[in-house]
Design goal:
27% helix, alpha+beta, 160 residues, Hppk, Hppk_sf, Alpha-Beta Plaits, ATP binding
Amino acid sequence: MITVYLGLGSNLATPIEQLNHALQAIAQLDKACDLSCSSFYESLPMGPQDQPNYVNAVACLTWQGEAIELLNALQNIELTQGRVRKAERWGPRTLDIDILLYGEQTINHPRLIVPHYGMYEREFVLYPLAEIAPNLILPSGQPISALLKACAINGLKKLN
């Protein structure tokens, strides 16, 4: 069993419902168990600012399978919930699920890079991740607490 951390985000089609539905779908995956999730956070969009704010969270689960199997399952959940992959980066989306950490592994696959390439600087990843894993040491050897000290909050708000 591998401990996996996922980043979830949505800014279209009732984002809170999108995240809740995604969490339900993840919990039903055959090889997943022990799912937990941070609070939901509102964050400013990356990239184009002419889009709604995002709702983000970080989930933790244990997975009994390969990382690519999990990626395929997560992308299927995204598609089921209306995700349309476009060439535009950081545009609006119904659902985005990223594998942030896959145990202590470093993965460099054409379809999957772990640790997630942007997680070390993104407040909407680090704050929810620290909420559910405050003593986490990342594969880089850095404690999550050190990364938080260097990460501006950029308007991030915890939702009730």
